[in-house]
Design goal:
This protein is an alpha+beta fold. It has helices at residues 5-12, 49-61, 96-99, 104-108, 115-138, 165-180, 201-222, and strands spanning 22-27, 33-38, 80-83, 145-148, 182-186, 193-200, 227-228, 240-241.
């Protein structure tokens, strides 16, 4: 399957009620054609971190050479970076007594919000974060899981469809401030996300970058495929850098 990146991006952005569903066709190597009719994947996996872990697990089970030194259930060897897109500040606007009086329309639209959609999307995202925090903490590998999310947004920056230049600049500022904040993890007793330690999100990303860079260097050295050097000149045979 060889889908265009543009089709993939349009499809994964096709949030219902905001953008239209997207359809495209692609061909398999043997020539068979397949048609896709897609909407935003957030309806199934609003936080896709667990999907990513599942995909890596499948590669390990299939014996991929990229994971030759990892046991099938050795999740302590995984590195997971989960980047949230931000969410409105939790204000606890409603209580059970209020919600008990709602009908269909009340759940669909109330005080400028869509309670039923917010509950499903936020709950599914939070449960993935809670699950991964539980697994990595149980394996004493909590530093291998990094969730960066700002759940204190308000106003236009918390809107899904406000794509003005001014709002884009404000979102950049939100991201820059988020980098300077300490990393946060879910408190497994309360379910509340809390700052932990002095390491900032920026420092954690630099730490992950160093680990990944070192890992790639090791994999390149062990790879059965030699690396072709790019610094060749006219009439010069490309040199092969062979691990030794």
């Amino acid at each position: 399957m060889d889908a265009l990146l543009s089709d993939i991006c349009i499809s994964t952005s096709a949030a219902p009620t905001y953008l239209p569903a997207h359809s495209f066709k692609t061909k398999y190597p043997h020539g068979k054609e397949k048609e896709f009719d897609l909407i935003d994947g957030g309806v199934a996996a609003n936080n896709p971190a667990l999907v990513a872990v599942g995909e890596v697990t499948k590669q390990i089970m299939r014996g991929s050479s990229d994971y030759f030194a990892i046991e099938k259930l050795d999740y302590g060897r995984l590195l997971v970076i989960s980047l949230g897109t931000g969410s409105p500040k939790v204000e606890e606007k409603f209580n059970a007594d209020t919600a008990a009086k709602w009908g269909l329309l009340g759940w669909l639209h109330n005080c400028g919000t869509t309670p039923i959609v917010d509950v499903f999307s936020q709950a599914s995202s939070d449960m993935v974060d809670y699950h991964l925090n539980t697994v990595f903490q149980a394996l004493h590998s909590e530093k291998n899981y990094l969730r960066i999310q700002d759940d204190t947004l308000s106003g236009y920056v918390s809107s899904v469809d406000k794509a003005t230049k001014e709002n884009m600049k404000d979102l950049v500022k939100v991201g820059e401030r988020l980098l300077k904040k300490p990393i946060s993890r879910v408190n497994l007793e309360t379910g509340i996300v809390e700052p932990c330690g002095k390491e900032t999100n920026e420092e954690a990303l630099r730490r992950f970058t160093k680990i990944l860079s070192d890992e790639k260097r090791v994999r390149d050295m062990r790879s059965p495929h030699p690396i072709v050097a790019a610094n060749t000149t006219k009439n010069q045979v490309p040199q092969l850098i062979v691990p030794h």
